[in-house]
Write a structure and sequence with these properties.
The protein is of the alpha/beta class. It contains eleven helices and 16 strands. The protein is elongated and about 65 Å long. Residues 394-407 have a biased composition (Basic residues).
């Protein structure tokens, strides 16, 4: 049975943050850097830690759970499924629910429970088989109904969510702290195809190291998720998004609300920005299967990289989500060099999270363009312009930020 230790009248609770595969170190760094507690273990898609806060505000995690019980994994055959009931008996379920109730105002009396399971490797049973074994045992202990996910129906209101994982070594049972997963953001009022997973967007903003005076650009902003997560992390920077889709622009503006994020319609192959005007680029470019390049990029995708190099300052950097290694090769060919690269698992794909900086050749080429006037400098409304268009200004560092964002 797990215990909760008191130290100087502070409850140190064992918690588990679930995340995308590949972001475990980022989540652990957020736990440590925010002073939320001590990281005790990193596992497949999990960060285990102890915290004095029962509901830590983690933005890079998909969800946070109270650690309920652990035992050895049951193996790959269904003959041992019944052994998972031990987890329900090991868990101090009533104490866990009491912690959840005290931590979350919305977590009142429960009307039932549901269980979501996942496992690594091939098994002769399904996730629903494991869920039902544990869920029914928990329901009997707590005296409440069990809602099975086998039929594909959503749990009724008032159900509290439990999580079961089998990683080949351990079987772990956890209780979700809040009524809804952390990755479901309140600002997400509208969505479009290709919308980026919010915790991943938050992780990309962390890697970008955005400062208060920075101009931050997403040239293919979609529903605005990347810029919104970045603005929530660093509200004193200036954030500017462009998208060729009118639906995307509408969605991004609705999601951004009153955040300092300016959104306008434009082609990412011809950005209405001056040269050397952007400090950070955050983007999930339209090279994937859900969203395809349009406008100038449909016939000349290399223009995307040319524009990035043009608008970035010599010391500027870009944090991008690229679908495969060929895109990284293209970036290097356009005088970018990878500072950091991480393979992720996202909705059945394995994209690369890449942090890029300009090479010396890229920086000198940008300088020559400025000195020699190579190529036209776009003089349309820069990142100083508000949402509704407004005054056309050349981007200047000293301009105050304006409040006016597929990801």
């Amino acid at each position: 049975m797990l215990t909760w230790k008191k130290n100087n009248n502070t409850m140190h609770t064992p918690l588990v943050a679930r995340c995308l595969r590949g972001l475990e170190a980022v989540v652990a760094a957020e736990v440590h850097g925010s002073g939320l507690g001590a990281v005790t273990d990193l596992r497949h898609r999990e960060v285990h830690f102890r915290s004095h806060r029962p509901t830590p505000p983690l933005r890079t995690a998909d969800d946070v759970f109270l650690l309920a019980a652990q035992r050895p994994d049951i193996g790959t055959t269904r003959q041992r499924l019944h052994e998972l009931t031990e987890l329900a008996h090991l868990a101090d379920a009533h104490h866990l629910l009491s912690l959840r109730h005290s931590a979350t105002a919305s977590a009142r009396g429960i009307t039932g429970i549901d269980v979501s399971a996942s496992y690594l490797g091939r098994r002769t049973f399904t996730r629903y088989d494991a869920e039902d074994v544990v869920g029914q045992a928990l329901a009997r202990r707590l005296g409440v109904p069990y809602h099975s996910r086998r039929a594909g129906t959503a749990p009724p209101p008032g159900c509290c969510g439990w999580r079961l994982t089998l990683d080949g070594t351990r079987a772990t049972l956890m209780l979700r702290v809040d009524d809804r997963p952390l990755h479901r953001r309140a600002y997400k009022q509208r969505t479009i195809p290709g919308t980026l997973h919010p915790p991943l967007a938050a992780a990309m903003a962390v890697l970008a190291d955005i400062r208060p005076d920075h101009a931050v650009l997403d040239p293919c902003c979609g529903a605005g998720t990347l810029l919104i997560e970045a603005a929530l992390a660093q509200p004193d920077a200036r954030f500017h998004g462009f998208d060729l889709s009118a639906d995307a622009v509408t969605a991004a503006r609705a999601n951004a609300g009153e955040l300092p994020v300016a959104i306008r319609r434009s082609d990412a192959g011809r950005l209405p920005l001056p040269d050397d005007s952007v400090d950070r680029v955050l983007c999930n470019p339209p090279w994937g299967t859900q969203v395809h390049a349009r406008g100038l990029l449909a016939t000349a995708p290399s223009r995307w990289w040319t524009e990035l190099r043009r608008v970035l300052t010599p010391e500027g950097t870009a944090v991008l989500l690229l679908p495969d290694r060929e895109d990284l090769t293209t970036a290097i060919r356009h005088h970018f060099t990878p500072v950091h690269m991480q393979r992720l698992r996202l909705s059945g794909t394995q994209p690369f999270l890449v942090h890029l900086a300009l090479t010396a050749a890229g920086r000198s080429r940008a300088s020559r363009q400025l000195l020699e006037g190579e190529g036209p400098v776009r003089s349309g409304p820069g990142p100083g312009a508000g949402r509704g268009g407004g005054e056309h200004r050349r981007l200047q560092r000293q301009h105050p930020r304006t409040s006016s964002n597929r990801h």
